[in-house]
Write a structure and sequence with these properties.
Layout: H1 21-32, E1 55-57, E2 63-65
Antiparallel strand pairs: 1-2
Length: 78
């Protein structure tokens, strides 16, 4: 709405962790059992569907290809 892309702005204190499917629920429970990880969630999965692309799919069926950033999108402040 404001023209700000949440996938390219600074977002400190967050992590995306890739794990094997059979370990995901156990790791999620461990993360949620900590104060910093209490809001941890499974947000996606790796499939062969889009052949090497990251595609964001909404719960209502919308799709968007997530392109790799060009250069350094956020200036270093620390």
């Amino acid at each position: 709405m404001l023209g700000i892309d949440p996938y390219t702005v600074a977002n400190e204190g967050k992590a995306v962790i890739g794990v094997k499917r059979d370990k995901a629920e156990k790791i999620l429970a461990e993360l949620q059992g900590t104060e910093p990880g209490k809001n941890a969630a499974i947000i996606g999965e790796v499939t062969d569907k889009y052949r090497g692309r990251v595609v964001l799919e909404t719960i209502v069926g919308g799709r968007r290809i997530l392109e790799a950033p060009i250069g350094d999108p956020v200036p270093r402040v620390c």
